Amino acid sequence: MDTILQFDYSVIFWIQAHMVNPFLTPFMYGISKISSSGAIWIILGLILLGMKKYRLIGLTIMISLFLVLIVGDLSLKHLVGRLRPFVDFPNVRLVATPPAATSYSFPSGHAFSSFAAAIAIYIGFSHIDTRKRILGVIAIIIATMIAFSRVYLFVHYPTDVLAGAALGIIDGIVSWYIGNYVYNYV
């Protein structure tokens, strides 16, 4: 456990010392904000649900976000109960408005939902329209930027984000199978 904490502290304080700057901060805050509560992914999922050719991808995104809510927000966050970095280190100057100090840090819901949706998009386009697989790659790049923004903004430790990303990848894969079954057999 000490090794994990040391890793978290080393990485997050290195980012604070070497990467946080007035040019990058508005971008990081903006990309973090558009993904609050999975908003960007919910909108994308609803748009795809409305398109017959891509309805399965939209369904898969929505299933993946529902699983994020159940597994991450309603279960793991409360079971682990990890405090956020800005609570543990109140003297660090925040560059943006943080979430409520009473909300927990592990796993990162932004990383979890972003990777779940991005993997659902990647798998979906890989199966339905391989020419548009690049959209899945773009979604994964966006998910990575969203996840990084959470550490940059000092609201999550790196392991919160890594765990969220790993859970999101698993969630996206599982959601594809559930969505495929529901779409084809229910």
TrEMBL record:
SMART domains: acidPPc. Residues 57-176 form the Phosphatidic acid phosphatase type 2/haloperoxidase domain. It holds the Pfam family PAP2. Keywords: Membrane, Transmembrane, Transmembrane helix. The keyword Membrane applies. The chain crosses the membrane at residues 27-49, 56-76, 104-125, 134-155, 161-183. InterPro entries: PAP2/HPO, PAP2/HPO_sf. Signal peptide: none annotated. This is Phosphatase PAP2 family protein. It comes from Veillonella absiana.
